Amino acid sequence: MRKRCVICGGEQDTRIYEGYDICTECADLMEDIMGEYFLKVVSQSAKDSKGGYAMHLWDMKIHESDYIRIKQDIERHHRHIRESVMRELAGEDNESRRRYLTRLLADIEWLEENLDFYHHYFENHYLCPTCGGSLFRNYIVEENGDWFLIRCAGCDGIVKKYFLPAIHRFAHVKKRD
After folding, report:
1. Which of 98, 105, 125, 130 could bridge across to 157 with cysteines, CB 3.0–4.6 Å?
2. pTM of the prediction?
């Protein structure tokens, strides 16, 4: 007997996240949510970084401080994305789009009750897996059609790839030259 998805109750067809029974559809939506959050956190950290002695101190921090940055804005992110989805849902007539937004809202609600998922999801995403550099200062965002890639600026390795539908373009995503 197959396990049920902890978010929607549907049949879990494959295990995307180790230790979490989340179906493929909910996992795809989770990637949309986490991708936006991750990009906001690393881009804000880059803006906060100054230079000179502040940059030296930044470089001296251990990677756990990077993880703390990921966790500090979770509640604000939930509130922001929930409000955005609710506004879209209220004015949406397209049934397919309404279904997407309703499922997205279910993922958001599950995340609000399961904050430990952030640790699981991001534990390998705040350092470059190739060179070990912190992505909070050394990253490149590349838009490629309906996808965006987060690359390490130090070694150019792909750290994460997110689907970015045309209706959800982020103002801070820059095209790579």
Report:
1. 130
2. 0.70
